[in-house]
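Hi F.,

I've been meaning to write this up properly since the lab meeting, where we talked about keeping a consistent format for the predictions we share between groups. The idea is simple: the sequence comes first, exactly as it goes in, then the structure tokens exactly as they come out, then a line or two of notes. No screenshots and no reformatting. I'm using this chain as the first example so we have something concrete to point to.
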Amino acid sequence: MGWMIYDHTPQDIRGEIHRLCTGESDARRIFPIASEQVGDVWYVAVRAEFKDANTGRQWVAERGYTPNQDGSYVFAAVILTSVENGEWGYKDMDETCGPAVHQAPRSILALLSATTHPFAVDWRARCRASMKQPA
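Output, unedited:
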């Protein structure tokens, strides 16, 4: 997917980032539980809860995550942002896309559910390795 461009910069960018990470369907709802900005990138821990816990546990496990007791899980959303010529834009993805940016803070990584998804595992490892590099 490409970038979404607004003709203005939102007054509350954190609020807009949280709105982008919030949603509900017949089967589940998602919402942010923590977010951190590093430069022009937002890292968000997003909780997904299922209306039927059994369905949720199965869905989550099939995608490589370890579900919580209630079938929920927490994943990372990565949102690139840009401000140029009075326009604000974003590009959103989750950790299973294997984002190229990998400076998620420890506080976000600590909230994520365990996963075996290869792109998410690699992305988390790159984030941890970047913490060890001198600034």
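Notes:
The helical segments are 13-20, 53-62, 106-109, 118-132.
The first strand starts at residue 4 and ends at 6.

If this format works for you, I'll send the rest the same way.

G.
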